[in-house]
Specification:
Layout (H helix, E strand, L loop, with lengths): L20 E9 L6 H17 L4 E3 L9 H4 L8 H18 L2 E8 L8 E7 L5 E6 L5 H4 L10 E4 L2 E7 L6 H5 L7 E6 L10 H16 L2 E6 L10 E3 L5 E4 L6 E8 L2 H22 L4
Parallel strand pairs: 1-2, 2-3, 7-8, 8-9
Antiparallel strand pairs: 1-12, 3-4, 4-5, 6-7, 9-10, 10-11
Length: about 290
């Protein structure tokens, strides 16, 4: 890497430099359930707590609004889509009332008779849904209930370019690579608790998030359901790969972290991105 003539280095987490916050994020967790009313009560409470703490964005787990399809019912027969629409409307109203962005998982149905998507809604401060990411890499269990998505999503939140992924997407490096150089922050939502079979997730997934953040130079907000048996708490990874704040495992709650408003850090990380891009371009050129 070219010689760096500034003072910021990899040695310090960006949040420990004393720089002010540019975008403050509340990464939340609660026990996601098939009960729409219970999910909504948790979401509204956490939106209120996040707004009171000065967060710009509040981030929730996979299927936080609707409940997680294949873990709760074998198919969608009898599912009350009108009730779900009403609950989504209440979440949007809360975003508008509190003047806060909301990123929340929800089953999304586009047409009757077709399996819905496992989605993340991006709701702005006015309560408008300004983006929707559909989970691209679905397990066999997912595919019992959901249609796989086909594309990434980038949304600018208060001047910060953000990407989005869901749960099993973490096993596919190409999805994370696709956001390299495109975003500063990635929202990743999951349900990894008593239904997750590989208990190595407790140690492996946070470390994997650190690796993705360091390699691709973006911060990661990881929101996970906290039913009994939660594999890992919801957490924040800094652009440097350092672990930031974490929620308390097995308890509904949140952790608040922020991207730093620091031009020197931006110059440093941008130089890293440019250098790694140049190396990758050279690696594509076949030897003479």
């Amino acid at each position: 890497m070219p010689k760096w003539d500034g003072t910021y280095t990899w040695d310090r987490p960006p949040s420990k430099t004393g720089a002010p916050a540019r975008l403050k994020v509340a990464t939340c967790q609660f026990p996601v359930a098939p009960d729409l009313g219970a999910n909504l009560a948790h979401i509204l409470d956490l939106i209120g707590r996040a707004a009171e703490a000065g967060a710009d964005v509040v981030h929730f787990p996979e299927c936080a609004i609707s409940g997680y399809g294949p873990s709760n019912w074998p198919d969608w027969t009898g599912f009350d889509w009108e009730a779900l629409d009403a609950v989504v409307g209440e979440v949007r109203a809360a975003a508008r009332a509190k003047g806060i962005w909301v990123v929340a998982g929800c089953a999304h149905r586009e047409a009757e008779g077709r399996k819905p998507f496992n989605s993340l809604y991006v709701i702005d401060r006015k309560g408008e849904i300004v983006g929707r990411y559909d989970k691209q890499r679905c397990s066999d269990n997912d595919l019992r209930a959901f249609t796989a998505g086909e594309r990434p999503l980038v949304v600018e939140i208060d001047g910060v370019r953000c990407g989005f992924l869901i749960c099993l997407d973490w096993s596919f490096p190409e999805l994370w690579q696709g956001y390299f150089g495109e975003v500063e922050l990635l929202f990743h939502s999951a349900v990894s608790d008593s239904h997750f079979r590989d208990k190595n997730a407790t140690l492996v997934i946070p470390s994997l998030m650190q690796s993705y953040a360091w390699l691709h130079v973006y911060a990661i907000s990881l929101s996970n359901s906290c039913r009994p048996g939660q594999d890992f708490s919801s957490l924040w990874i800094e652009r440097s790969g350092h672990i930031g704040g974490q929620a308390t495992r097995h308890e509904a709650g949140l952790t608040i972290n922020a991207l730093s408003d620091d031009p020197e850090q931006d110059r440093f990380f941008n130089s890293v991105i440019a250098y790694r891009k140049s190396l990758r371009e050279k690696a594509r050129v076949p030897a003479a």
